[in-house]
Amino acid sequence: MVGAVGEWLTGTEAAVLLVILVLATLGTATLFLIGLAGYRRRRTRTYLLMTVVLGLLVVRSVVGIGTVLGAVPMPVHHLIEHSSDLAVAALVLYALLQLGPPSLE
Amino acid sequence: MTEVRQQVLEHVDAHPGVHYKGLVRELDIAAGQAQYHLRRLLDARELDVEKIQGRTHYFTDGYDGWERRTIALLRRETTRHVIVYALDSDGVSAMELADELDLARSTVSFHVSTLVEAGVAEKYFDSKGRAHLRLTRPAETRSLLEAVTPSLSDRLVDRFTRLVDASFHG
């Protein structure tokens, strides 16, 4: 069914994974576009950080597809996926920290 | 006038304040083609544009600046709700808007300044110094309300901003 797959999974597994990854890409890409539109309206740092985070989720799914199809070697896959986890955690934490304590308006 | 250009013109006429992406989607034409015809229609002064927060809304002739801005804002879900709420009262406080519409204060403050900037509403302070909002032209706003409804993509972006506001800004 799927031609060039890595040795680490069977044809059926690859097909299932690919379907999930395509759906994940569509979902995260939709969220990213919504985030981008939100950022264009508000132009604040928080919105920028959220948009970058949503963009990273799209990258993850795309890299996943690349790996199933054999285009992305496994070490590179792990490096990108887990670096993006680190970046997502850092960006969301930074977004929370930069807000500071509540202030009276 | 080419058939496509006529189609674009008729679509904008039937959907005042439609934005570029909505037009491309509804008419099922190529983005470049839409851009080309819109440009030509603008040059020929058959169409007007109104830019609000990075989004371009198109109109046929016959709407003044205030009407164009009001229609464009009525296409956004949350702004629309704020307008509808303000329509039913002669002056509503920002606090009441936040409570009644279940919005974060930063969301209310964003939409209030957008409305004030567009001249759709005005802000004033009561004797205790609390911010209130009042529509500048309630009767005309009410009649425009029926002309437009927000699209699905507008609703999603609106809800996303409410979510982020509520999570990060309170």
Give the low-confidence spans of chain B: none
| Alpha-beta content class of chain B | alpha+beta
Largest interface: A-B, 15 and 14 residues
Separation, N- and C-terminal Cα atoms of chain B: 52 Å
Task: State the assembly state of the protein chains.
Answer: heterodimer
- Using only CA atoms, what is the Rg of chain A? 17 Å
Radius of gyration of chain B: 17 Å
What do we call the CATH homologous superfamily of the largest domain in chain B? Winged helix-like DNA-binding domain superfamily/Winged helix DNA-binding domain
Into how many domains do the coordinates of chain A divide?
1
Summed over residues and divided by their number, the pLDDT of chain B gives a mean of 89
The fraction of residues in strands of chain B falls at 15-25%
CATH fold node name of the largest domain in chain B: Arc Repressor Mutant, subunit A
What is the number of beta strands of chain B?
Answer: 6
The global form of chain A is elongated
What is the H-and-E element order of chain A?
Answer: HHH
- The first-to-last residue Cα distance of chain A is 61 Å
The class by helix and strand makeup of chain A works out as mainly alpha
Main beta sheet strand tally, sense and closure of chain A? none
Overall pLDDT metric of chain A: 88
Quick description:
The complex is a heterodimer of chains A (105) and B (170). Helix content of chain A is 76%, strand content 0%.
Would you mind describing this structure in some detail?
Chain A: It holds the Pfam family DUF7471. Chain A: InterPro entries: DUF7471 (IPR055894). Chain A: The chain crosses the membrane at residues 15-36, 48-74. The complex is a heterodimer of chains A (105) and B (170). With 105 residues, chain A is an all-alpha fold. Chain A has three helices and no strands. Chain A is elongated and about 50 Å long. Chain B has two domains: 3-63, Winged helix-like DNA-binding domain superfamily/Winged helix DNA-binding domain (Arc Repressor Mutant, subunit A, Orthogonal Bundle), CATH 1.10.10; 76-165, Winged helix-like DNA-binding domain superfamily/Winged helix DNA-binding domain (Arc Repressor Mutant, subunit A). Chain B is built from nine helices and six strands. Chain B has helices at 3-14, 20-27, 31-43, 65-74, 77-87, 94-100, 105-117, 138-145, 152-169; strands at residues 18-19, 47-52, 55-60, 92-93, 121-125, 131-135. The longest helix of chain B has 18 residues, at 152-169. The model of chain B has no long low-confidence stretch (mean pLDDT 89). The chains are: A mainly alpha (105), B alpha+beta (170). At the A-B interface, helix 1 and helix 2 of A face helix 9 of B.
